[in-house]
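Worked problem 6 (solution included).
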Amino acid sequence: MKKFLLLLTLCLAFSGISAQDTLQTAETAAVIQTDSTTILSTETLQTGVAPNPYKDILGKKEFVFNIGSILRGLLGMAVIIFIAWLFSTDRRRVNWKTVGFALLFQLLLAISVIAFPVVQDVFEFMGKLFVAVLNWTKAGSEFLFGPLVDTSNFGFIFSLQILPTIIFFSALTSLFFYLGVLQKVVWVMAWLLSKALNLTGAESLSTAGNIFLGQTEAPLMVKEYIPRMTKSEVMLVMTAGMSTMAGGVLAAYISMLGGGDRLMEIEFAKHLLSASVMAAPGAIAIAKILRPQTEEIDNSVEVPKEKIGKNVLDAISNGTTDGLKLAANVAAMLLVFYALIAGFNYIFEHIGSWTSLNPVIASATDGRFSSLNMQFLLSYLFAPVIWLTGVPGEDLALVGRLLGEKLILTEFVGYQSLSEMIQSGAFANPKSIIMATYVLCGFANFASVGIQIGGVGGIAPNQKPTLSAYGFRSLLGATLVALMSAAMIGMLIA
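Solution. The predicted structure is:
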């Protein structure tokens, strides 16, 4: 209880700063909204897809040495580390050498993505591959749904543009796993992690695998080791699982944020990929603070030889089936959560009407929020936390809302909201858009706690008590990882 009170105090300490910055949105946001409306009236009619009002600016982001941004980012990083240490199970036995090297690795990745053209080219190349695969998916969708997938005629339909992407990427991942390609990539990354950061081979494999696979798929690579894992290893498996993004949903987010614009899809692909890669060392740093490794470890790295499927076609078939289940789960989840949001907003708006809060909120936010609703509450509840990452003051409420939606609902809801905000021109500063992609990275939401207990616990029933005990700690850890990545990126861009 004392820990939670201290954490609340920290948030409130920054609320005075953030609240003032947040309420500065009026004039700027109004201008942007007006401009975006003008744009929508021309290009949207021609293409059926709303253009990105920030297109000309987003692609020009580069390293900028700004002492204010750097100091604010360092402050945010320090507070994030302190919060992790505050919730540590054994504060005296934290291996700060491992933590320091992991954070340094994460920071170097951030600097490389922003400041070094060679690394940018690598991520952009990977982004182009993802965009190319999106086009392949479109060909399959056109065969099934015909002209319905043509955005110029029917606009953007989520179930037709996004869900097929999840299915195809799942099949593709299964194929690469069967061919042994994915294992080789994962092995290289796992070997580097284990040797550089003194991790066990099993947790290194699982962490590296999470960059490409989901939070329940990656542990399958080390399923024979999970029953014998230490509590520290289990913590890392859970934290890394919630901190990174699987390839299928990553492609879906690229499509959502890009809005059908190939150049924007490549730009967002670069940042989404770097966010997932940066999350791996970040998860190591935070997890090893929350639950330090105190036992003897085996850092040998061995990739399991088993393959998914008896042959190529069987592997593709299995991946397609799994992707279909995931797509159906995503669709059902979004339907339910959006319905719940509507229900909560119905109640909140009536409360605001009875208490006369609605006109006060509309006036105080200059029309950004018309009444008391869930989005308003999430925006200002998480704005102090977002301030720590270095998000511009005029966009604190927006990014705070996104963090709240990710945590309470799902990251899918968060990215969908981000996409809508981008298309409407809601952000006063394009920097906030880039930082939001990092804040939303990962599966850190309350539902994931149950997913991991059920999924990983199904592999190793003897570990269910540990999984249950560390469920919410790993959720906190994964949230801190995303905020850490955002803080690092925020230091490097204007």
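Discussion: The CA atoms of residues 130 and 441 lie 17 Å apart.
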